[in-house]
Design a protein that fits this description.
- The protein is an alpha+beta fold and 83 residues long.
- It has a single domain (2-60), classed as 3-Layer(aba) Sandwich (YefM-like fold).
- The protein is built from 4 helices and 3 strands, in the order βααββαα.
- The chain has helices spanning 6-11, 13-23, 41-48, 55-60, and strands at residues 2-5, 26-30, 33-38.
- Strands 1-2-3 form a 3-stranded mixed β-sheet.
- The chain is elongated, with a radius of gyration of 27 Å.
């Protein structure tokens, strides 16, 4: 990953953007400390797709999909409890 000082990044913003698009993420430092990473839209979208699936997506992706389950309800009355 290429590292840019903030002053240099401001002065050469167009080059920074092209580099992020063509070469991958570009790091910007402030006072020598890594502070920000500039990503191409393609890289950003790829990272966004890694979100947790919804509950429905999770269930549909289960290795148990297609297995028949016995979901019959027990119709017996509830047991007696002394209160």
């Amino acid at each position: 990953m290429t590292s840019w000082q903030l002053q240099e990044a401001k002065a050469r913003l167009s080059e920074l953007v092209r580099s992020a698009e063509l070469k991958g993420p570009q790091e910007i430092t402030v006072r020598g400390e890594p502070t920000v990473v500039v990503l191409s839209r393609r890289d950003y979208d790829r990272l966004q797709r890694r979100k947790k699936p919804s509950f429905v997506e999770f269930m549909r992706g289960s290795p148990l999909v297609g297995i028949e389950l016995d979901l019959d309800r027990d119709r017996r009355p509830a047991r007696e409890v002394a209160l």
